[in-house]
Design goal:
With about 220 residues, the chain is of the alpha/beta class. The protein folds into two domains: about 1-45, no CATH class; about 60-220, Rossmann fold (3-Layer(aba) Sandwich). The protein is built from seven helices and seven strands. The chain has helices at about 1-20, 35, 75-85, 110-120, 155-160, 185-190, 210-220; strands at about 65-70, 90, 140-150, 150, 170-175, 195, 200-205. Helix 3 crosses helix 7 (about 210-220). It is globular and about 45 Å long. It binds flavin mononucleotide (FMN). Flavin mononucleotide binds near residues 71, 75, 76, 113 and 147.
Length: about 220
């Protein structure tokens, strides 16, 4: 009887040990187990829906365009230096009714700019040319403007709203007497709603060509 009992105990122990011999990792959920995590589909393999991420589609031509508005030629000079440095095309924004010197007299409360500044509803400046030719060919667009009362001149607004910047790298630049770039680039980016906007750069009125070219070289486009 003792012998039979001993054999029975051995049999039970053998079964128990066999059950305990399974690898411990097998009961761990895949997300918690580093050895099995790789069996999950990698997130980057999941194709993104292009409808949901239009920013992923680059423009096709790989060309650079410098778009600018300049009332008194300071911004125009900087635009020219950028175009020389990058081999870019240029596109000047021209108001249908250009600003005269009197219009630009910000010290006169009744001048055109002063009235437009004081009443935003007057700032809808019609442009001769809001949409550059072959816009789709450009994947890099510099956007230049003078600072007016600490902001980008509103002459830019018609150009910003008339164009789709999807797939383009956009680089704001401005000239001013003393004001910084401030939020001018960010506000243009917000108004555009599309495009990959870089931080941008402010130059003083009468900027030196070397300063502009050094900045362009630092962009590593
Ligand atoms: C209506 C008006 C408002 C201006 N406001 C500012 C300003 O807030 N801060 C500043 O530093 N310069 C200001 N300026 C100076 C211009 O930003 C500066 O002269 C600029 O270089 C002009 O560029 P442009 O020659 O391309 O038009 C203003 C000029 C004008 C005509």
């Amino acid at each position: 009887m003792k012998k039979f009992f001993a054999i029975f105990v051995c049999f039970v122990m053998t079964l128990t040990l066999a059950a305990c011999g399974e690898t411990p990792t097998e009961n761990i959920e895949p997300a918690d187990n580093p050895e099995t995590e790789n069996t999950a589909e990698p997130a980057e393999d999941v194709p993104e829906n292009p409808e949901e991420s239009p920013e992923e589609s680059p423009a096709e031509g790989g060309k650079t365009l410098v778009v600018y508005y300049s009332a008194t030629n300071n911004t125009e000079a900087v635009a020219g230096y950028i175009a020389d440095a990058t081999g870019a095309d240029t596109f000047e924004l021209i108001p249908t009714e250009p600003y005269t010197s009197a219009d630009l007299d910000w010290t006169d409360r009744d001048s055109r700019v002063s009235r437009e500044h004081d009443d935003a509803s007057l700032r809808d400046v019609e442009l001769e040319n809001a949409v550059p030719d072959n816009w789709g060919d450009y994947d890099t667009v510099f956007v230049g403007y003078p600072i007016w009362w600490g902001e980008a001149s509103w002459v830019l607004d018609g150009f910003i709203s008339a164009n789709d910047f999807t797939g383009k790298t956009v680089i704001p630049f401005c000239t001013s007497s003393s004001s910084s770039l401030g939020q001018s680039g960010e506000l243009l980016e917000e108004a555009a709603g599309t495009g990959k906007w870089l931080e941008g750069q402010r130059f003083r009125s009468g900027a030196h060509e070397d300063d502009v070219k050094d900045w362009v070289a630092g962009l590593e486009l």
